Amino acid sequence: MTGKLSVWYERVLIVALPIVLVAAILCAGCTGENRTPAHAETLLVSGSTTVLPVAQLTAEAFMAKKPGTDVQVSGGGSSVGIQAVGSGTADIGMASRDLKDSEKEAYPDLVKHVVALDGIVIIVNPENSLEGLTLDEVRGIYNGTYRNWNDLGGPDLEIVVTGRDSASGTREFFHEAVMKKEDFVETQLEKNSNGAVKQTVAQTPGAIGYVGLGYIDASVKALPIDAGSGPVEPTIENIEDGTYPIARELFMFTRGEPTGLAAEYLSFISSPEGQQIIRDEGFVPA
């Protein structure tokens, strides 16, 4: 009889033990789930590579002031940013130009927010001896009228025309404000970011390009531009007082009036702290 009881207990244990283990694992999982902190509140910002450094630096400062938030910033160009916010895949779209008519029609509820002012700077390689250009000469370079720098008083060197690709808001503005909607020369090298344009010009003795003011450093030479009243240096002060001839507003777009985290972030950008970050980065506060 004792032997039969022993066998019976063994069978019970064999059946019951897995059940107990599973229950324990489930309970432990429930307990661990309760200990997991809630996910950070996320804000997705996408678009213009001109606005990108402004967004990145202000996002870092904003997250430091508001723990538990995650502001994710990515580039791609103004067209990408406008499409992203318009289609709902981003909370904020960055653009270095205003909306096209087709975009206004496709996304009628977009609201624009001016976050900074910017100058488009004409840059050449530091080895280039040229000291400045007129707006007409810049247009002539980009439409193919001028092919060698010695045509403009510079070195005997072929001009390597460098610009932006079709997704760029900077290209759109340049095409209207400088080119007067004339076609670009077919040999133009098209780059997908301000940084790529700057790198090409820095590494190519005969190159010319255009970038946002915040991208200027010692690796390239920024040229004064003469729009008819004498050459004007591309500086924050000259953009603020309106004397530099190639200047524009920089935007962030939202679908409808911003709420929640988007509203808080945009409010931070327009605050004295946010505007100081913009100035420190080489842009002009709005």
Automatic annotation (TrEMBL):
InterPro entries: PBP_domain (IPR024370), Phos-bd (IPR011862), Phosphate_ABC_transporter (IPR050811). Keywords: Signal, Transport. It comes from the Archaea. Signal peptide: none annotated. GO terms for molecular function: phosphate ion binding. The keyword Cytoplasm does not apply. Pfam families: PBP_like_2 (PF12849). Residues 38-273 form the PBP domain. The keyword Oxidoreductase does not apply. Transmembrane segments: none annotated. SUPFAM superfamilies: Periplasmic binding protein-like II (SSF53850). Gene3D superfamilies: Periplasmic binding protein-like II. This is Phosphate-binding protein pstS Short=PBP. It comes from Methanoculleus bourgensis.
